[in-house]
Amino acid sequence: MVLQRFSWPYGGRHASFCGSFTGWREYPMALVGTEFQVVFDLPPGVYQYRFLVDGVWRCDESKPIMRDEYGLISNEVLVENNAQQVVQPEPSPIRGINMDEGTILTTMPPEPSSQNPGMQIAVFRHRISGILLHNTIYDVVPLSSKLAILDSQLPVKQAFKIMHDEGLALVPLWDDHQGTITGMLTASDFVLMLRKLQRNIRALGNEELEMHPISAWKEAKLQFYGGPDGAAMQRRPLIHVKDSDNLVDVALTIIRNEISSVPIFKSLPDSSGMPLLNLATLQGILKFLFSKLQEQAEGYSLLHNQLLNIPIGTWSPHTGRTSNRLLRTLRLSSPLNSCLDLLLQDRVSSIPIVDDNGSLRDVYSLSDIMALAKNDVYARIELEQVTVQNALDVQYQVQGRRQCHTCLQTSTLLEVLEELCIPGVRRVVVIEQSTRFVEGIISLRDIFTFLLG
């Protein structure tokens, strides 16, 4: 922790202080000699603050100033842990400020390129958090969109066919008895169902799928995939967010629960009886954030940094970069079961598929398993005998060849964010340009883990 003194030396009868670290709650300032002062014990970081002097909000022109997307201005300070009293950066030339209106009357200069990387990242994260905290998930939800909901009493076979035909990797489940959304049916459910079907064909034969309801499958899954002591899995409450939740909380809910999307419930129920408003995804939040960043891209110098200078993503050990996850790759000849094992055990959504030289050939995603639902292909194959190549061939027959979204270590953060805003793109594979050797992968989850650091 670092003792940080804030002062207002420009007169007044009464002065209060508030900052991002106080939750913008006001604290009275003491008059010491000819200036008002207040001291806080703060952890290192970048903070914003303002003064309330005789009932008027003011900023100190001699200290660094920033403006948010709404035009509100604040002073900004970097608290470092290498000194008891933080030395303020050299003041920039005085800018004309109308204190009463709280707006900057001249254009803010871009961040200096000489800023050290640690501070550059801290400032960037601080400003990103400001944007996400001041907007709710309701700001991201499209005004009109198509949302599929399945009845929990629908037969399993019919449900997965609908998901395949509609191109859905997950869908909310409606329980008519409870009168609400009670769960989600996902591609992971389809994988687990296939394994149960093929491991214990008598327990859940293909013919039974015609009548077996989703709700019964969900209960059977809790029993079949229980712990090693034979105890059944415990059903966890449905994870959801409210339309009034800010974007930081929604993104953290998705990341911490390792899910791809989360249902948005209405804060205030209406007469329709349907609490579900839509589904929130990291890509939806990123597209909203990216539109905000584009408005002032020149003011965010970190956006123009290359990936090799930013601690983000999952990397191959040969690159010398560390990451929280181990980069997994598989070959075309690998058994599909091995691929599914890694996807479920590592709780990742995709694995790069490479040739014998480690060069990228494709990416197999958990949602690709839904291709086996077309014409009941899953009922005519043995999972143990299917290779990744076989599974991809089925995928190509259903949807045709597809593009692998890639980048280089020399690509900028801005270029990667732009790629991840493309509908349906959830990760970008980092390759070596000449050989297409897989060096890393950057997912939507990696982006938000970095941004919310």
Automatic annotation (TrEMBL):
Database matches in InterPro entries: AMPK1_CBM, AMPK_gamma/SDS23_families, CBS_dom, CBS_dom_sf, Ig-like_fold, Ig_E-set
Gene Ontology, cellular component aspect: chloroplast
Stored SMART domains: CBS
PANTHER family: AMP-ACTIVATED PROTEIN KINASE, GAMMA REGULATORY SUBUNIT, SUCROSE NONFERMENTING 4-LIKE PROTEIN ISOFORM X1
Species assigned in the record: Panicum hallii var. hallii
Lyase is among the record's keywords: no
Lineage start: Eukaryota, Viridiplantae, Streptophyta, Embryophyta, Tracheophyta
Pfam families found in the cross-reference section: AMPK1_CBM, CBS
Keywords of this entry: CBS domain, Repeat
Domain annotation CBS: ranges: 143-204, 323-380
Protein name stated in the entry: CBS domain-containing protein
